[in-house]
Design brief:
This protein is an alpha+beta fold. Helices cover about 20% and strands about 40% of the residues. The chain is built from ten helices and 22 strands. The strands form four sheets. The chain has a 15-stranded mixed β-sheet that branches. Strands 11-12-13 form a three-stranded antiparallel β-sheet. It has a two-stranded parallel sheet with strand order 2-22. A hairpin with an 8-residue loop joins strand 8 (about 130-140) and strand 9. The longest helix has 16 residues, at about 60-75. The chain is globular and about 70 Å long. It starts with a strand and ends with a strand.
């Protein structure tokens, strides 16, 4: 059986009616920011690559989301704020100005630094938890003033209790190091390794943990070192099989009732770069070629190898030029499929922009994308 993709083609803001500013209430919103920046700071140059999944709203509540936002801003950018744009802009400014045009002279490669900033969702259980992996890597060349850094961390955020847990907070590292583990634990941990790699291990560490609600399971990131290489990989184990090495914090997340969250009326931003974002306008944005054009675009899209059946709902802005901007997931399915849906939307060619009183305006559109297993070719339906 092939894993194929089915997409619902109803762009929900295509209904023609009187102008309406987009004030749709949301329960979840994940913003996806991916940049490649070339900055100059005096004689130095910094290349920053970002791939950040920023939590704008969890479980209908900004109050429940803000502690995680503040934590991620500190981890990624070093700023104590819950506002992504201000932290990201401040970080960029601290590393120079975006280079535009031609440089007056050939830059010295030794004055470069290469920076990677990542924050990706590992799992999400509505009203319960969200798990993140963060990466901050700085690779300065010999004359760069920046200090080298290479940090990868896993975090579990308890949404109801507004608490952030590290790997050490979720698993009993001392117990693992002492070998006091469930039967078959180490066999399962090292199963992904070849016999040759296993026999050459000089050290091993469990340095990342996340939770999976379905089943339930515990995800583990393992780092092994041999004399000449480092091996990083992930594995999943049933929660019941590893419960004895899970801390009280972890057991509470899996076993205690989810505390209630007081819903708030929260909307997505209704301004894009100074322009009002509308939901319904006189003439809605139109995909070039209409529905047939959209079908042709989607016909070249393939789903990940093992999709989870269900639906992702995306939201995006078609700006005054017709370009797709500000893509978000407002109803998630799984991190892998959420990213796939975002990439699909970001890859769309320009629309014919929406208009109001004859002038182009920004319009927010909503696209549900359904994933399911099929035995035949992908089907497209409205």
């Amino acid at each position: 059986m092939k894993h194929l993709l089915s997409l619902l083609l109803t762009l929900l803001s295509l209904t023609l009616c009187a102008q309406t500013v987009d004030n749709t209430a949301q329960k979840y919103a994940m913003r996806y920011v991916k940049d490649h920046l070339f900055l100059q700071h005096g004689e130095d140059f910094n290349v920053i690559d970002t791939d950040i999944e920023w939590p704008e709203l969890l479980s209908y509540s900004q109050v429940q989301t803000q502690p995680l936002q503040q934590f991620l801003a500190q981890q990624l950018f070093g700023y104590d704020t819950a506002n992504f744009d201000s932290a990201y802009q401040a970080y960029q400014s601290a590393h120079g100005q975006v280079v535009s045009g031609t440089l007056k002279s050939l830059p010295d490669d030794n004055r470069f630094a290469y920076i990677t900033l990542k924050a990706q969702v590992k799992s999400y259980a509505p009203n319960h938890w969200i798990c993140y992996q963060t990466t901050v890597k700085i690779e300065p060349q010999s004359l760069s003033p920046l200090k080298a850094k290479d940090e990868k961390h896993y975090y579990v955020y308890d949404i109801g209790r507004k608490k952030i847990f590290s790997t050490e907070d979720i698993v009993k590292q001392d117990q693992i190091q002492n070998g006091n583990v469930p039967s078959g634990f180490f066999e399962n941990i090292f199963a992904p390794l070849s016999d040759d790699d296993f026999n050459q291990i000089t050290s091993a560490a469990l340095d990342g943990v996340w939770l999976v609600q379905k089943s339930p399971q515990v995800g583990l990131h393992i780092t092994c070192r041999t004399a000449d290489k480092q091996l990083d990989y992930e594995t999943l184990m049933p929660y019941d099989d590893v419960r004895s090495i899970v801390t009280k914090n972890g057991r509470t997340l899996f076993e205690k009732p989810v505390p209630p969250v007081q819903p708030e009326f929260v909307t997505l931003p209704n301004i894009w770069k100074g322009d009002t974002i509308y939901y319904k306008v006189e003439n809605a944005p139109e995909f070039r070629g209409g529905q047939e054009g959209l079908k042709a675009y989607l016909a070249h899209v393939s789903a990940p190898k093992a999709p989870l059946p269900g639906r992702v709902i995306t939201a995006f802005v078609v700006d005054k030029t017709g370009a797709v901007q500000d893509v978000r997931v407002i109803s998630p399915l799984s991190p892998e499929l959420d990213r796939h849906a975002v990439a699909l939307v970001k890859g769309m060619p320009k629309f014919a922009p929406g208009t109001l009183k004859g002038s182009p305006v920004c319009v927010r559109m909503y696209l549900p994308i359904s994933y399911r297993e099929e035995k035949t070719n992908s089907e497209f339906s409205e």
